[in-house]
């Protein structure tokens, strides 16, 4: 990747006109961007590039098919061992390593106990001592064994670091899920969110720290978690502090910048833009120097996924399939050859139901012993408006439930959030005295709003975000998306759960209000 840099005067002299003209434009822009003391360095800048021990810290970002990676390099005084870094696991890996980074986070432990790939982003899970204040529910917060996810690069392990990573919104997984981490799915929207916020924090922190370090005596041991000194222990020998940071398109548009195009909603397979690449270097040797580059790099790259790469959507889809197949096997095994009525909870459950039934049918066909005679039934329950539960579960259609009396019933649901829908249905079914009732849900949301209800079979546990796609809707939109996506709040002007609906008071269609 070509890099445009604000060139120092001496470099300009060497390289002549072309670079000189580049530097003018970028220089003035950087002056606008660079706050405080860094801006004044620019004004006075007569940079001399000295060979020094450098600290390098960075935030880099890539949008790909709605999925985002953030990279963050970190070195500390103990040597070349980076404390934190990321890498690309996606299709653009080979094009430019600096563009291809995955999400990664601090880890207070280097023992990675599980790894998985979500939409091209490689995620590792490592135990941590603290609950994450951001995404753990109060009950899981108290759990000392919460897991945080972190990403790794080239099979290397994340090394120790402070638990400050929590402030950057880690993905946390409750301890009780430790045994079944391959069931945990992190929606791409969440990855994007977390990366955006952490990038923003890192950017600010990095600049602030650079300024502070320039102002402080080098003998001070103070260092930001994002800017650590490296090299010789003797502080005076540190001649240059180098800070490299890249910012995400969505978070840091300067006033004069063209607004970024919105993220494509439907087109999962297209890469969106990569806009920011800002780099700042503060030199103590010649006193004052800032080097900064900033541009839209999308145009320089062919960002379309190449045909040889597996689109992330496909990966996610295949994860769903694998999970569904596993659930089908478990169900067939547990049913022990007894007849079963599979009750699909419409509308959200229809895709999962169809896939699950296909797998059970296939298992039945291929099995000599434990095939399960199967019939299907449908019920329609509705309680959500926008992205909020109305607290009022209405039964608005379906077959006669009396047909379920004395039967083994498998309720097939797409998602359990508060658990209200399922508790209502179970109560209703009870009146018809089925022989046995089991519930399978593709997704269970980790949310403090949960009543604590847990289905018998669970596909994935998902964070507290509103999901659409794979038959899950937002006001009937997006059911047709093949993959799960988090709703993009900005695009829809949604504000999550600001207006809670009043409790159900009556009325309703079909079988009426429960
Ligand atoms: O655990 P809960 O908080 O009760 O939420 C889960 C229910 O919410 C959704 O249904 P929705 O009311 O959106 O109807 P739909 O299936 O037609 O989309 C989903 O399909 C579940 O049935
Ligand atoms: N579409 C959709 N419906 C839900 N019902 C409960 N949670 C959800 C969710 O995240 N998405």
From TrEMBL:
It comes from the Eukaryota. Residues 319-474 form the Phosphoribosyltransferase domain. GO terms for biological process: GMP salvage; guanine salvage; hypoxanthine metabolic process; IMP salvage; purine ribonucleoside salvage. This is Phosphoribosyltransferase domain-containing protein. Keywords: Magnesium, Metal-binding, Nucleotide-binding. GO terms for cellular component: cytosol. Pfam families: Pribosyltran. The lineage of its organism: Eukaryota, Metazoa, Chordata, Craniata, Vertebrata. Residues 1-33 are annotated as: Disordered. Coiled coil: none annotated. Belongs to the purine/pyrimidine phosphoribosyltransferase family. InterPro entries: HGPRT (IPR050408), Hxn_phspho_trans (IPR005904), PRTase-like (IPR029057), PRTase_dom (IPR000836). One of its GO terms (molecular function) is nucleotide binding.
């Amino acid at each position: 990747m070509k890099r445009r840099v604000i060139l120092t005067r001496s470099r300009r002299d060497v390289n002549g006109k072309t670079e000189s003209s580049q530097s003018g434009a970028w220089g003035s822009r950087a002056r606008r961007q660079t706050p405080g003391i860094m801006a004044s360095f620019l004004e006075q800048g007569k940079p001399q590039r000295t060979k020094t021990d450098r600290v390098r810290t960075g935030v880099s970002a890539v949008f790909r098919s709605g999925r985002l990676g953030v990279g963050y390099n970190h070195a500390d005084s103990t040597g070349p061992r980076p404390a934190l870094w990321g890498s690309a696991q996606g299709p653009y890996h080979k094009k430019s390593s600096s563009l291809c980074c995955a999400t990664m986070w601090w880890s207070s432990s280097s023992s990675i106990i599980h790894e998985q790939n979500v939409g091209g982003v490689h995620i590792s899970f490592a135990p941590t001592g603290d609950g994450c204040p951001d995404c753990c529910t109060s009950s899981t917060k108290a759990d000392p064994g919460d897991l945080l996810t972190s990403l790794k690069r080239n099979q290397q392990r994340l090394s120790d670091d402070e638990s400050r990573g929590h402030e950057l919104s880690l993905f946390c997984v409750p301890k009780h899920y430790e045994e079944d981490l391959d069931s945990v799915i992190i929606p791409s929207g969440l990855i994007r969110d977390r990366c955006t916020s952490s990038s923003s924090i890192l950017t600010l922190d990095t600049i602030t720290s650079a300024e502070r370090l320039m102002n402080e005596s080098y003998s001070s041991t103070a260092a930001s978690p994002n800017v650590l000194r490296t090299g010789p222990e003797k502080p005076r020998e540190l001649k240059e502090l180098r800070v490299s940071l890249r910012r995400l398109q969505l978070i840091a548009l300067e006033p004069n910048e063209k607004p970024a195009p919105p993220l494509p909603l439907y087109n999962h397979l297209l890469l969106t833009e990569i806009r920011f690449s800002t780099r700042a270097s503060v030199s103590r040797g010649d006193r004052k120097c800032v080097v900064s580059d900033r541009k839209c790099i999308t145009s320089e790259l062919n960002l379309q996924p190449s045909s040889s790469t597996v689109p992330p959507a496909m990966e996610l889809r295949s994860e769903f399939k694998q999970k569904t197949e596993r659930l089908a096997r478990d169900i067939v095994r547990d049913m022990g050859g007894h007849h079963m009525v599979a009750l699909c909870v419409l509308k959200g459950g229809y895709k999962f139901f169809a896939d699950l039934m296909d797998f059970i049918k296939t298992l039945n066909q291929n099995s000599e012993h434990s095939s399960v005679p199967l019939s299907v039934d449908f019920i329609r329950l509705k309680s959500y408006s926008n992205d909020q539960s109305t607290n009022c579960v209405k039964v608005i259609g379906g077959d006669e439930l009396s047909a379920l009396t004395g039967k083994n019933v498998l309720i097939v649901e797409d998602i359990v959030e508060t658990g209200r829908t399922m508790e209502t249905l179970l109560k209703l079914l009870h009146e018809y005295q089925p022989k046995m009732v089991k519930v399978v849900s593709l997704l269970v949301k980790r949310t403090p709003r949960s009543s604590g209800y847990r289905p018998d079979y669970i596909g994935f546990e998902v964070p507290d975000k509103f999901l659409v796609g794979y038959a899950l809707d937002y006001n009937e939109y997006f059911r047709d998306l093949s993959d799960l996506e988090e709703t993009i709040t900005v695009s829809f002007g949604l504000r999550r759960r600001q207006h809670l609906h009043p409790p159900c008071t009556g009325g309703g269609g079909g079988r009426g209000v429960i």
